[in-house]
Hints:
By secondary structure, the chain is an alpha/beta fold. The protein folds into two domains: 7-102 and 110-260, Type I PLP-dependent aspartate aminotransferase-like (Major domain) (Aspartate Aminotransferase, domain 2, 3-Layer(aba) Sandwich), CATH 3.40.640; 265-385, Aspartate Aminotransferase, domain 1 (Alpha-Beta Complex), CATH 3.90.1150. 41% of the residues lie in helices and 13% in strands. It contains twelve helices and eleven strands. A seven-stranded mixed β-sheet has the order 1-8-7-5-4-2-3, sandwiched between helices. Strand 4, helix 6 and strand 5 (159-163) form a beta-alpha-beta unit. The longest helix is centred in the last third of the chain and has 32 residues, at 252-283. The mean pLDDT is 97.
Amino acid sequence: MIPFIDLAAQRARLGQPLEDAILKVVRSGAYIMGPEIARFEAELAAFGQAPHALSCGSGTEALVLPLMAWEIGPGDAVFCPSFTFAATAEAMPLVGASPVFVDVLPDTYNIDPARLDAAIAAVIAEGKLTPRAVIAVDLFGQPADYAALKAVTDRYGLKLISDSAQGFGCTLRGDHPLHWADVTTTSFFPAKPLGCYGDGGAVLSKDARVHDLLVSLRVHGQAVASDLEGRTFDHDPKYLNMRVGMNSRMDTIQAAVLLQKLTIFADEIAARNRVAARYAEHLGDVVRVPSVIDGGVSVWAQYVIETHDRDGLAAHLRGEGVPTAVYYPVPLHQQAPYRRYPQPGGLPVTEAAAGKVLALPMHAYLEPETQDRIVAAIRNYVKRNRPPS
Ligand SMILES: *Cc1c(COP(=O)(O)O)cnc(C)c1O
C-alpha cells in the first residue's frame, strides 16, 4: 500500500537532530513547561505573523480556551460549518453554548459568508440565542473567505475564530487568517500539516488581554501578570486562582519536536503545493479537482476530489494499493449529538458534498513516480466506468 501520509519520510529527513532534541528534554527533567515551550511559542508566532501564540493540549482545547476567555456559555450561539471535524462544533457544548450550523460554498467547502449572514439574522429574529462568535474552518488546508466573513462578524459585533487545524500556514492575499480573525487555533495531531508526536495545539491571538486570559485558563485559571498588577499577596500567586480554567499544557517534548519540524515547514508547504499542482494537471479532465479561493495558498492537509461513484473508485484504488479516505461521510448536523442544534436554512451543499468527496494520498514526500501510479489507477477506473453521454 502507498502511504496516505508519509511521516516516516519526514522523520528520516529530520534525522538525528530530532531525536537529540527529544532526548535533551528527557535528560533535562523539564517535562512540563520546559524552556522549549516558550521558544516554540515565539517561533510559531513568528511563522503565523501573530502578536501572541499559546501552546495547549490539543486543537480541541485550542477552540474551547478562547470561548472560555470571552465567557461564551449557556444561551449563546456560535456559528460554524457542519462539514468539518467534530471538534469544531464540540467546543460549544463543552462551554454550555450552542453551535449553529451554516452551509458551505460548493467550490471550496468553506463556510458561505452569505449563508452565515442569513443564519445570524435568523437566530436574532428567533430571539432564543445570543449570537457571540463565528468559527470559520480552513478545511483541507485552504483559507476561508476571511474578508467577506470579517465584514459579517463586524456588522453583528461577533468574534471571529479561525479553526486552522488543517490550514495552519495557509494565506489569503499574503496574509494569515489572523489578519482578519480575533484568534487562530490549530492542532498538532500527528497527521495535520504541522504535527507533533502526540497531542498538542495552539491559539494565536492579536489582543494582549485575550492572550493573558488564555495563559491563565490553560493552567486552572491561575493568576497572571495582569491579575496581579498593583496588588500584593502574602503567598505564592501560583496557587491563586482567578477563574475556572483547566489543564491544557502541551508537553515539553512535543515543543522540542515542533521546533525541529518548523524549520522545514515552509519547504513542506511548497512541496505539498507541487504535489497538488501535479494532481490537478493530470486529473483535471477526469474528476473534479479542488479549487482554491482567489489569492489563497493552501497547505493541502487533504487533496479532495469529487466524482460520481466515489465508493466504486475508492474500492478500485484499494485493490491497486492506493489508500483513500472520506472526509466527512456524515456531516455533524446529521449526527446524534448535534441534530438538536439550529441549522437555519438547511445545509444542501454540505449534504451533497458528503456523498461525493474522496481524499487522495497527500504529503510533502510523494514522489512523482508514486503519484503517477495513483493518477493512472484513477484514470483507468474513470475511463472504464464513464456514464454513457
Ligand atoms: C483535527 C481538528 C481539530 C481538533 O484537533 P485535535 O488536536 O485532534 O483536538 C479541530 N478542528 C479541525 C477542523 C480539525 O481537523
